[in-house]
Amino acid sequence: EGLKTTIIGRPNVGKSSLLNRLLGEEKAIVTDIEGTTRDIVEDYVNVRGVPLKLIDTAGIRETDDAVEKIGVERSRQAIKEADLILFVLDQSQALNPTDHDLMKLTQDENRILVLNKSDLETAVSLEEIKDLAGNSPVISTSMTNQSGIDDLEEAIAQLF
Ligand code: GDP
Ligand code: MG
Fold it and tell me: Could you write out the DSSP letters of every residue in 1-20?
């Protein structure tokens, strides 16, 4: 068993890359095609003594695709049941309504905001994010450069 840690965020922000990085193996499929993660991939990992059950969800968004819809519904369920939410944002893209919805949906949850793709030119200000974040830690990462993972692990360890 482990603390249920659900990775959320809209498609293509780097959720599966983050899962793989934390697990240290290529378990989830990473592609630049949206909607690749249709089901939920999960595995156990120990982060600085904190046992986590990591759950990579389908990107939450409105969709007409029946198969994807099942994945999305399971994502919402996973948020409710989570002990920790890792909310991944692509900092090279402006925030969109889905990001704002997810921010509201998770505001009362134990949450860390992961500002991924820090290797790319930034399109969101840290002030904007921190305004929305409330008390949630905000961690800047790049899965491409493998940076920020230590900071994220530290933030997780601090919460438990
Ligand atoms: P998901 O849909 O949220 O699970 O996103 P993926 O992990 O599948 O990644 C989507 C795309 O973004 C892939 O092409 C990744 O290689 C790329 N990607 C992930 N993290 C980063 C990052 O930190 N920087 C850059 N430049 N690309 C990234
Ligand atoms: Mg994915």
Answer: --EEEEEE-STTSSHHHHHH
